[in-house]
Design brief:
The chain has 142 residues and is of the alpha+beta class. 39% of the residues lie in helices and 20% in strands. It contains seven helices and four strands, in the order βααβααβααβα. A four-stranded antiparallel β-sheet has the order 2-3-1-4, with helices on both faces. The protein is globular, with a radius of gyration of 14 Å. The chain starts with a strand and ends in an 11-residue tail after the last helix. The structure holds adenosine-3',5'-cyclic-monophosphate. The site of adenosine-3',5'-cyclic-monophosphate has 8 residues, from loops. GO terms for molecular function: ATP binding; metal ion binding; nucleoside diphosphate kinase activity. It catalyses: a ribonucleoside 5'-diphosphate + ATP = a ribonucleoside 5'-triphosphate + ADP; a 2'-deoxyribonucleoside 5'-diphosphate + ATP = a 2'-deoxyribonucleoside 5'-triphosphate + ADP. Homotetramer.
């Protein structure tokens, strides 16, 4: 089925000028960008987005990192988009990511892992709504 998923290019990858290279991976995989913008998250925005991890030991470092510089947020649309996106991202820990995946090629560590992707259709809907209003999503008819 055609799905939408949510993507973040994280501060490390933006700082290293990898936005275009990562967009190329999305488009080559058949995922269409239907919304996108650059943001520099506040502490409150980062804490809210990652609220499900608030009890984890890495939460403080995660919020610190995600507010350390600008990010790109995107909505990607395509066949089986949630899984297709996670496949091209590779494992959360770049040390475990398959060769040729975004995290294998652009990330240094599990903390600074270049990109985020929703893990399910339900979380995608919630994450998209966290950053985008309905009128910011552009239907792709061709
Ligand atoms: P992300 O998909 O953005 O969701 C939460 C982030 O926490 C994750 O990617 C990692 O960058 C970061 N993180 C740091 N340590 C861990 C860990 N042990 N397990 C999962 N995520 C971690």
């Amino acid at each position: 089925a055609i799905e939408r998923t949510f993507s973040i290019i994280k501060p490390d990858a933006v700082a290293k000028n990898h936005i275009g290279a990562i967009y190329n991976r999305f488009e080559t995989a058949g995922l269409k960008i239907v919304a996108a913008k650059m943001l520099h998250l506040t502490k409150e925005q980062a804490e809210g987005f990652y609220a499900e991890h608030s009890e984890r030991g890495f939460f403080g470092a995660l919020v610190e990192f995600m507010t350390s510089g600008p990010i790109m947020v995107q909505v990607l649309e395509g066949e089986n988009a949630v899984l297709a996106h996670r496949d091209i991202l590779g494992a959360t820990n770049p040390a475990d990511a398959a060769p040729g995946t975004i995290r294998a090629d652009f990330a240094e560590s599990i903390d600074e892992n270049a990109a985020h992707g929703s893990d399910a259709v339900e979380s995608a809907a919630r994450e998209i709504a966290y950053f985008f209003s309905a009128d910011e999503l552009c239907p792709r008819t061709r």
